[in-house]
Amino acid sequence: ALAVGNVELLDLIQFKLYRRLVLDKPDPGTEFDARLFAEFVAGRSGSSARVEDLQTVLRSTADDDQRWVDHPLVGRVRTALEHGRGCLLVGPSSSGKSVLAFQVGKSFLLGGRSVGYLNLGLIETNAAKLFGAVSSRPKGNDHSLLIVDDLQSNPAVARYILALSSAGRRASLELPPPVLAVSWVEFSADAVTWFDDCLPIAVRSHQIRQRLAGHYQDSLTQEDIESILRSCGDDIFLLRLSLDHSTEQNTCIGPHQL
């Protein structure tokens, strides 16, 4: 196929990787199926999967980023990314992983750099279109950082993106942007397998629970705050809701009332 000019080398690499990592259907090393390749190219062209600009994502989110509690891990994550090393934020649901990723991304934005954002839980179409954005820095891709959220929600695409990023760092003439990936604990071992030389960082709610509660000291009694902390446990989202509603209604609102 290469010799007669039916396919470009980069397209063939994309085709092989996508079938192996996403569809889990590796071709024999010497086989080229023109029909399957044509289907792949058509699906890639029609795909709506794309990397969003973090600035746009932050403007559209319902959460006010001015109310975020400064996470103590921002500096450590930034240092690794500034040296071109990928990072994997690992933690249970509602432990503050995504907000930490947003804070790191916002710090890049404030430095005048562009940041891409990709939520794998929202990808329902052919993800092959993401090849260039992840594996290299082609013309038009000026992102200094790529945040990939919710790896566990789409394991096949997560493996594809992490493998592309790792391959791009080793083989691309134009190094791709470093990836800041976010995953639940259950998928983290699989993610590390495909994400070469990444820095895994454990994110736990206890790192910011007291800081978050401290923002409500002028609105709630210490007794109410401690009661809410006990009843909400490690769920940061639930804790935030409880503190907000308790402040609005001027009474202690725990998880059961919510």
Q: Give the helices and strands as they follow along the chain.
A: HHEHHEHEHEHEHEHHH
Radius of gyration: 21 Å
Total helical segments:
11
Structural class category: alpha/beta
Strands, total number:
6
Q: Helical content, roughly?
A: 40-55%
How far do the termini sit from each other?
Answer: 62 Å
Q: Can you summarize the main beta sheet?
A: 6 strands, mixed
Mean pLDDT: 87
Task: Tell me the overall shape.
Answer: elongated
Beta-strand residue percentage: 5-15%
Strand order of the largest sheet: 1-3-4-5-2-6
Short key terms for the protein model shown above:
alpha/beta, 46% helix, 11% strand, 258 residues, 6-stranded mixed β-sheet
Quick summary:
The chain is of the alpha/beta class and 258 residues long.
Describe the secondary-structure layout.
Blueprint: H1 9-21, H2 34-46, E1 52-53, H3 54-60, H4 74-82, E2 87-90, H5 97-110, E3 114-119, H6 131-135, E4 143-149, H7 155-171, E5 179-183, H8 185-194, E6 199-202, H9 209-214, H10 222-232, H11 236-249
Parallel strand pairs: 2-5, 2-6, 3-4, 4-5
Antiparallel strand pairs: 1-3
Could you characterize what this model shows?
Helix 4 (74-82) crosses helix 5 (97-110), helix 7 packs parallel to helix 8 (185-194) and helix 10 (222-232) packs antiparallel against helix 11 (236-249). The chain has eleven helices and six strands. 46% of the residues lie in helices and 11% in strands. The mean pLDDT is 87. Helix 7 links the parallel strand 4 (143-149) and strand 5 (179-183). It has helices at residues 9-21, 34-46, 54-60, 74-82, 97-110, 131-135, 155-171, 185-194, 209-214, 222-232, 236-249, and strands spanning 52-53, 87-90, 114-119, 143-149, 179-183, 199-202. Strands 1-3-4-5-2-6 form a six-stranded mixed beta sheet, with helices on both faces. It is α/β, with parallel strands linked by helices.
